[in-house]
Amino acid sequence: MPVLETALILLSLATLTVVLAPRLKIPIEVLLLLGSLVISEIPGLPPIALKPDIVFLLFMPPILFAAAYFTSWRDFKANKRPISLLAVGLIAFTSAAVAAALRLLIPGIPWSVGFVLGAMVSPPDASAATAITRKLGVPRRLVTILEGESLVNDASALVIYRFAIAAIMTGTFSPGTAMLRFVWIGAGGVGVGWLTGILGIFLYKRIEDSTAQILLSFLTAFGAYLFGEAIGVSGIIATVAAGLYFGRWIPAQGTAEVRLSAKASWELVLFVINAFVFTLMGFQLPIILRDLSGYSHETLLLEALVVSATVIGVRFVWVFPATYVPRWLSPSLRKRDPSPSWRVVSILSWTGMRGIVSLAAALALPQVLPDGRPFPYRDLLVFLTYVVILATLLFPALSLPWLLRRLGIQAGDESQREETLARVQAVKAALNALDALHRREAYPSQPMEELRRRYERRLQILEANLQEQAFSPLFDEDQQRRRLMRELLHHERQALLELRDGNRIHNEVFTQIVRELDIEDLRLRSQRL
After folding, report:
1. Residue 4: how many CA atoms within 13 Å on its side-chain side?
2. Between the CA of residue 173 and those of 87, 95, 185, 196, 372, what are the distances in Å?
3. 3-state DSSP assignment of residue 396
4. Mean pLDDT comparison of 153-162, 167-176, 199-208, 351-360, highest-scoring range
5. Cα–Cα distance between 93 and 98 in angstroms, integer?
6. In this structure, how many other beta carbons lie within 10 angstroms of the beta carbon of residue 217?
7. Tens digit of each residue's pLDDT (9 = 90 or more) over 13-31
8. pLDDT tens digit string along 41-96?
9. For residues 111 and 91, what is the distance between their CA atoms, to the nearest angstrom?
10. Contact present, 193 and 245 (Cβ < 8 Å)
């Protein structure tokens, strides 16, 4: 079967995960991983393998840029200490622990090979964890730390990954030189990403076509990566920095249509990347297992169990002391940021799920050394990475809902209260603008009075819900009104369908009006207060 047809069929199958995941209450990543196992057992599929450098270039920039773009900069700064301890300290600790475990399992294996494996399996992917925690309702700070950790740990792990691979390829490694180079490529990567972000926003402001603006965001991601790599700094860190800059400034630029379309476009691209990476692994597993035929099943099982247990256990070993020891040593920190419950720390320790970044890094391992020899232990490293992803995704993802209920962890009301306050200020700003417009007689008085009554009622509902008591009856009434409006929108769509199907209106007219109805429906559906 041709590669293109195979890829299209696999994407179609991957799309089923979007349908099945909510019904099974399982993260999409888990279903994609299980799907790759099924694919690996299908006989007769063609071997598909992209060049390692192509894998990194195609997949990493969009993943890292999107993660940075959707990060809350305010929450990130407010939690920079725990995020740094996890995303830098824990990454280095996990990489070293996995390297040491591999050395114990395979005496004589180079430390650099062990660090390659450690770097690949050290960065958790927050998407599966936050998909569960957001749905079940946990303290917002926990979700913020998971998302912030996922953003920075990808960059720090991939920098270690690059250093370890360079040591294998050249056969030399100097800790002092490596530290200096780490500082240079990190600082240089931030600078390159910042400059690329500035240039991207500069061009964005001067482009009026929405499609071109969305395309520019993708080009910025790849441009930051390529620019960084071209001048010898970290393209990975540059991509993250550019994503943070874009995420900070884009909401103030462009139109609502562009922002909605861009979000949908990025979600589509990221889903396609996830689907392709997991299915590519499914294609490569049979080849990898065949090349591992020199290892006994018992040996592979032992190595997989030890490495997986190390990855899971090291997170507990690091997270608990990193949470409590600084507070024991610093009374000012303890006063400013009281110690969290051991229950919350346990959840943070258990949510170290590996995912797309680890898998893409494994697929991007070089095939051969510069002298033509095979890259040492490549098939074993890829196999162990896959097993770690399988273990850290399946067990925590399937047990996390039960564990949250067992520990009695529930979300506080800080998110809801903050959202209500924000909506109050937005409504007050609209009412002040109405007053100014009324004084200038900029619009007819009747529509302005209608809008005033609507905004004043909205403000009344919001302010009532800021009180200590439960939500006011006005809130339920407002919910009923929105449900009624959505039902009326449904009937409007049906009427438009009848007009189009009866050839009484042009399809372009139908598409335009339905788009307006869909935007209004989306607004009503997403409005919670």
Report:
1. 0
2. 24, 16, 16, 31, 20
3. helix
4. 199-208
5. 9
6. 22
7. 777 776 776 677 677 777 7
8. 777 666 666 676 777 788 888 888 888 887 777 777 778 888 888 888 899 899 99
9. 16
10. yes
Distance CA 286, CA 41 (A): 8
With a CB cutoff of 8 Å and minimum separation 6, the contacts of 263 are none
74 Cβ contact partners less than 8 Å away, ≥ 6 residues apart: none
Token pair belonging to 143: 């979700």
| Helices 140-170 and 111-121, axial angle in degrees (round to 10) | 150
Q: In this predicted structure, which of 280-289, 306-315, 426-435 has the lowest mean pLDDT?
A: 280-289
Structure token pair of residue 288: 């990898």
Query: Which tokens sit at 125?
Result: 């992917």
Task: Look at residues 397, 364, 388, 398 and name the one whose alpha carbon lies nearest to residue 378.
Answer: 364
Angle at alpha carbon of residue 428, lines to 422 and 431, rounded to 5° = 145
In angstroms, the CA 525 to CA 529 distance is: 11
Whether this prediction's pTM lies above 0.70 is answered by yes
Q: Name which of 526, 296, 276, 529 is nearest 418 in CA terms.
A: 529
Cross-strand bridge partners of residue 179: none
Question: CA torsion angle for 43, 46, 50, 51 (degrees, to 10)?
Answer: 100
Amino acid at 473: P
Quick one: which H or E segment has residue 71? none
Residue 413 DSSP symbol: S
